[in-house]
TrEMBL record:
It comes from the Bacteria. GO terms for cellular component: plasma membrane. Keywords: Cell membrane, Membrane, Transmembrane, Transmembrane helix, Transport. It is a multi-pass membrane protein. This is FecCD family ABC transporter permease.
Length: 321
């Protein structure tokens, strides 16, 4: 277990170092270190562009990873994740609406709009599930239907407002292009507040995994824990989406990979999902910048290339869900 933690942290640091070197301007490690501490000719590239982007990639990935772990813990469905249950689509729709109707909005409007959209979809999903007595394992399918509906709404906004389509499309495909120090406080403040909440409810989610009746018999306030965990997951996913757009499948992949390494204990799972989610987004962003400079691919495209086949594998593996 300890070796797995150490290896994961070392890989994250190594990928972070590599991400500082690649891009239109190829730099050596010595140049990067010197610029970080003393400035110089590459001050903008290193200190104003790549370093904040590195921190944002880790923060966004961590937010999506923890969100996915919480959603899977509450719904008890291995196919559940923020993007598959519609939360990311809700945040994306609200943010796209803001970008197209009010393109000059202050930067702090975007996280608020994304949180509002994500929370609205989360509440709608809970209401629908309670109204039709939907089992937790089937909520993922309802979320996919909501995502499809909101995706059509996003397409409508882009058609009606073609002038703002470029900004919206870059954001919707999932990219950290143009992001910097201004966005950094939002995601890391969100993690500082919501990750301890996830860890606080971790043992309760472990008990919920035994079944609702067992959890209630052991004194867990089931509804309270589920609402708190889902709201935390929704806000983490919404904050991540507001900064980097809809980076797909990180919330699905990170908890599964963390579960392979650290087991089903939700405290270890939350931290492991944060590290692996950060690593996935960091790798995707580094490849996006370094594969064919000066052309930059959206990081969300690269995560989808990995995540979509894995999702198909999960569908085949869990036919009974």
């Amino acid at each position: 277990m300890k070796l797995s933690w150490l290896i994961l942290v070392v890989i994250l640091i190594a990928v972070g170092i590599v991400s500082m070197l690649v891009g239109v301007t190829q730099l050596s490690l010595l140049q990067v270190v010197d610029t970080l501490f003393h400035g110089g000719d590459y001050d903008f590239v290193v200190n104003q562009y790549r370093f904040p982007r590195l921190l944002l990639a880790i923060g966004v990935g961590a937010g999506l990873g923890v969100s996915g772990a919480l959603v899977q813990g509450v719904i008890r469905n291995p196919l559940a994740s923020p993007d598959l249950i519609g939360v990311s689509a809700g945040a994306g729709f609200a943010a796209t609406l803001l970008l197209t109707i009010y393109p000059d909005a202050p930067i702090w409007y975007l996280p608020l709009a994304a949180i509002f959209g994500g929370v609205s979809v989360g509440l709608a999903l809970v209401i629908i599930a309670q109204a039709v007595k939907l089992p937790p394992a089937r909520m993922a399918l309802t979320g996919i239907a909501i995502s499809a509906f909101l995706a059509s709404g996003i397409d409508f906004l882009l058609v009606v407002h073609p002038i703002e389509i470029n900004t919206a499309m870059i954001w919707l495909t999932g990219s950290l292009w143009g992001r910097g120090w201004e966005q950094l406080p939002y995601i890391w403040l969100g993690l500082a507040i919501l990750l301890p909440i996830a860890l606080w409810y971790a043992w309760r989610l472990d008990i919920i995994g035994l079944g609702d009746e067992s959890a209630i018999a052991l004194g867990v306030q089931l509804e309270k824990v589920q609402i708190a965990a889902i709201l935390s997951a929704v806000m983490l996913a919404s904050l991540s989406v507001s900064i980097a757009g809809t980076i797909s499948f990180v919330g699905l992949l990170a908890p599964h990979l963390a579960r392979m390494l650290f087991g089903h204990n939700h405290k270890a799972l939350a931290i492991g999902s944060a590290l692996i989610g950060g690593l996935l987004v960091l790798i995707a962003d580094a490849i996006a910048r370094g594969i064919s400079p000066p052309i930059e691919l959206p990081a969300g495209v690269l995560t989808s290339v990995i995540g979509a086949p894995y999702f198909i594998f999960l569908l085949k593996r869990h036919k009974g869900w």
